[in-house]
Amino acid sequence: MTGDSPPDRELLADLPLRPEVMGTLYERHAHAVFRYLARRAGPAAAEDLLSEVFVAAISASSRVVAHDSGSALPWLYGIALNVLRRHFRQQPADQGVARDLGMDWDAVDDRLDAWAERGRLRAALGGLSESDRELLLLVAWEGLTHAEAAAALGIGPVAARSRLHRARMRALKALKKLRDGAPGGSDKATTLQAGGKASWTL
Amino acid sequence: MDPLDELLSTTGRVPGITPRGLGNGRAALDVAIARAGTQPNSTMRQPGPRALRQAPGRWWGGPHGKTIIGVAGVAAAAAATTVLVLPPSLHPGTSGPTVPGAISKVTYTIRPAATNVTAAYVLNKAATLAGAQLANGWPNARYWHTEEQVTSLLCPGQVTIANDWVDRSGNGVGENTTTGPKSSDPMCESSADNGKPFRIINVAPLSAWIGEKQYTWSELADLPTDPAKLWPVVRADEQLPFTSDPSLSTSGQSHLFRSIWNLLTSEPVSAGLRTALYEVAAKIPGVTVAGSYTDSLGRTGTALHIGLWTMVVDTGNGQVLAMISGAPPVPQGCVRASASVNVRHVKCVVGGGDATVYISAGAANSAPIVPK
Prior knowledge:
The complex is a heterodimer. Chain A is mostly helical. In chain A, 61% of the residues lie in helices and 3% in strands. Chain A folds into two domains: 1-111, Orthogonal Bundle (Rna Polymerase Sigma Factor, Chain: A); 113-188, Arc Repressor Mutant, subunit A (Orthogonal Bundle), CATH 1.10.10. Chain A has helices at residues 8-14, 21-41, 43-59, 73-90, 105-110, 115-126, 130-140, 146-153, 157-179; strands at residues 190-192, 198-200. Chain A has a two-stranded antiparallel ribbon with strand order 1-2. In chain A, helix 1 (8-14) packs across helix 2, helix 7 packs across helix 9 (157-179) and helix 8 (146-153) crosses helix 9 (157-179). The radius of gyration of chain A is 18 Å and the shape is globular. By secondary structure, chain B is of the alpha+beta class. Chain B is built from seven helices and 13 strands. Chain B has helices at 3-11, 19-37, 119-131, 217-222, 227-238, 252-266, 271-283; strands at residues 95-96, 108-111, 143-152, 159-167, 171-179, 198-205, 208-210, 213-215, 288-295, 300-306, 309-314, 319-325, 354-364. Chain B has an eleven-stranded antiparallel beta sheet with strand order 1-2-9-10-11-12-13-3-4-5-6, covered by helices on one side. In chain B, strand 9 (288-295) and strand 10 form a beta hairpin. The longest helix of chain B has 19 residues, at 19-37. Classes of the chains: A mainly alpha, B alpha+beta. Chains A and B meet through helix 2, helix 3, helix 4, helix 6 and helix 7 of A and helix 1, helix 2, helix 3 and helix 7 of B.
């Protein structure tokens, strides 16, 4: 943030009456929001969805309040998650494979260079609920504090802390199971099917 | 670094956006900004407030609005009615409320609209937009404040502006200000006196209800945001079975739709839950598009109808704008029920024909002090 540019908190306060300040927020946060989208949907889809996040944010601007940290990113990530859900919902579902509205696993797999890594990631995250997984990833991938991640998901910071701890414990347990050779690697169904696609019960 | 952090660090690496992608995104955004700049505050108004209020005076919570602690008694009792008859002045195609001598903040019109759009389409669109309306900050706020305008056919001329501050335990402060002609009708505000406002403020339970179940903020936060998982929860809470005719008093689909509307209008629910609630509402059979809505705040929306209820949603931003209930006919041999009744046990309750316009909603850190 430069010295002559208003902080996010001021921009968000102005946003309901001056939608043009969304342009400044875009210049400031488009890269981060793109990475958020790319980690979950792949770079190609992320480029398509990026503008949708900021356009949706204009419509949502009347209710926005900056997080205590002052950053607009928790708010934008919350909107991005909903844009992703809608995007995934509109995709044709693979027959017999439960749809995951928060993550395109094939897109994730494409950027992992080792088969072992994709198995480990799925094992670690596959046993988590969508919201717990998102909480974990907002902290790990997007670098939010647990309080910021809580705001992005619309939950309280205390609940977020406890859910984050629980999610980490579950994910670590799943990784340990995988390392110890237990099939599946998580408490919930992880069934490799023909062609290497996984069926997820979230 | 433990194995999980190591794995997440590795898998979190993605390429940056291309300059072309960045430019395309900005171009699309600029178009949206230009459009927003030409719409006078249409997305800036905040409707949304409290749950079920049937007449000047309110249902202070309670399953299906069954517990009534109205400031002057409450009419309606739609839960106990059998036949839908929309009152003429509230029927789609006419206007309301236009009350001489009262402090009517909002007037509105619902006109029938020729459209091929289905209610499910409207609700799913609202789901997408509402999901983007993240109200950061409210989880830390002390209160959820809502402002509504309430009018009723039972109390012609009276207009109530109702403000509620509900805390996270489900209790709160309610403040009603009623203007209009004096009325001796026990269902109306008897202290209003020809334009002299009557204000009452008190403490009351203001929790959200789904069917028979009361929810605190934290319980609302724990509701699933996956529509497939939310559906069985709200169905179990609502209990009433779906019927072939949604206008029946026992129609589970009407009650469920109204419960969902209560949450959408009155409660600090997360963006994810708002989306899921709309998506669940879209699955309820029997909801139809009643017409197009405009009001004096410059807002426009689509009116949806099921059973005794007409609900209005702004399809431009997913905000709830109004809820209008139909007035059932008076069953033969019945007289009006008294105030402060438990609707479940009253067989001859009549009334209804009220309209609530949601004016604003949002987090607040203070509430009025109730005089002792």
